[in-house]
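Supplementary Text 2. Reproducibility record for the structural model of the 674-residue chain.

All settings were left at their defaults, and a single model was retained for analysis rather than an ensemble. We include the record here because the model underlies the residue-level annotations in Supplementary Table 4.
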Amino acid sequence: MFKTLKIGLYSGTAALLLSSCGGGGGGSTSGYTLLDPKPNRTYTGSKDPSLLNQTNTALFASVIVGDAIPTDTLLKSETQSGSLLQNQTELLAQLSSTTRKIGSNSILLNRAVSETVACDLGGEASAAGDVNDEESTGVIIYTYKDCQLEEGVVINGKSSETINSNYDPEIYTQAFDGLKISSGGESYELTGTLDYSSTFTYEGSSTILTEKQVANVTTIHSPSQLSTYLQNYTSTKVTYPDLIFVYSLSGKVFLSPEGYVTVSNSSDYFPNHESASVIPKQGYVFMAGASQSKARISNAGQDNSYRDDYRLDLDENGDSIYELTSIQDSSSSEVTDLTANQPPVAAITVIVNSWKYGSHSDDQEYIIGTNFSLNSEESYDVDNLDLSYVWTIEEKPEGSTAALEANSDNDQQFSFTPDMKGNYKVSLKVTDDNGSQQSSIDFINISIANIEPEIETSFDYNTYYKLMVNSYLVVFADATDSDTFGADSEVSRMTIDYTWLERPDGSTTDFFIQNEYDQTDEHRGQTINNQYSLQLDKVGNYRARFTATDSDGASSTSLVEFSVRGSDLLEGDINCTYIANDEDTCNWESKTAKINERMFIGLTTPDEYFSNCTWEITSSATDSTGTTAYFSDAGYYIDFTAPALGDYLVETECEKPNEAGESTYSSSVLTIVE
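Retained model, structure tokens:
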């Protein structure tokens, strides 16, 4: 069974008034014996530095913070322990408040003080001394006789207050010389002094308030004679404009029989006011012991909230690695044993910023340009310590300049975009703030697959519609490789080749490059645009396969197909077109047309195929006057209307393409019907 004793001393003595007893000594202490406590003499333990270890670290922390101390550790027995020892910082604050309230209620400028009041639950408390309100100086002796302020809590003995200034600055000293406090069969004796000062300084138009309390107090538990001793234990609060606060702690804390530790704090230390203790809301309170052993007290959570519990970490061998840790509850009469600090768990969460991929897996292959958002939100620490994060690209393809880019102001979120095909390995190292050895690493592997190149072929249609022997054809081959980057000297690149699949017998025609464009863009990769030309030497069918191949051997193909005709004019190159809406006006396939219907008879080939054509249409029949019909014209077609039934001979002669001076001839018989 453990016990924590907390005393509200001023509750029963706040009404004690200081009244004039006449005369007054102008702040003189004549007639009053000043208390002269010797806390260093009453402390019963070792006065050497204590080696902080797994057993005593929580005890020292409890003296500073104010929580319970286990009985069997202090007394080495099963009897009730001096549980008030660990609460003396709180007790001193209450004693200080009590004496200040007793001496605060006078309006006389220069007087002697003598007053006695009854305590709430029995006994009495009195004050006697000399004060000078004009000079804000004086001495008051407080005497408690069986003063019971709470149920079962009794105070006996004396304390004093020496006032050096009660306004600006406010400076006073409180002393306790064997002040006895009893509770539940336990007895405690306090000896020592509390020095308090409150001063203002001025920097330009800014006012700075500095409040400081220095404790030199020993608390002894009776009958065990175990004791604690606060030596020059200094608590300072500096208030700057705009309510900016800076706190500091210093001094030594002795604990019998262990010895002492030296107390300090981190620069960002801010206490937890809600618990009225030195428990940090942020930052650390440090304890330094013998042989470089040290411990620290910090907020128990990672949210820097106000809490009653706190974290206690121990570096027993002084290597700056806190091997042992625990969570202590200042509101409990139990302490928690320190245990080995557990390494945190690193976990990488991957979000693939692409519609193509739903989630990441190490065996998934991605394409260049896929963006990966990496975060550490699944990482955690078993001991609930604050974590730091280090991201590293452990492996990437040679020549890659891909880098991790922060997505926020902290080190928990990064993005990553691979810029070359190959394998990438990213690590996350998570370290708790108990030391670099307490960390863990998680890895992800990202594979960027080789992307097949793409190729398309097309014709220059100005040449495609003139596919005759001895004409020229222009072919375009356009290929892209989205994952080839860098100049020729830096990386292997995509190439374009072709293979003839079919050519007419005896043909030797072949492609030759007229224009070639090869460029690499940092976003789109490599692009090749080739322009080929070939002269057609034989009538027949041609087929060629163009292939784009990248440096990894991946390829894609596109087929080029065309047919070449001769340069002679054929019957099929001629057709007739009706002018009226009657589709039966002219039918070249059946070689029939209607009488007295206007029609055009001309070439079906493009203008470029044949030129300088002449037309003649001669009828074997005669009209009503007995005249034979005859028509002639020059050009691409002839405008014709049959005046009589019968057969008409249609003849045309044109110059051949690409064969200067040569001509070609064709004739057909067209029958005119009703």
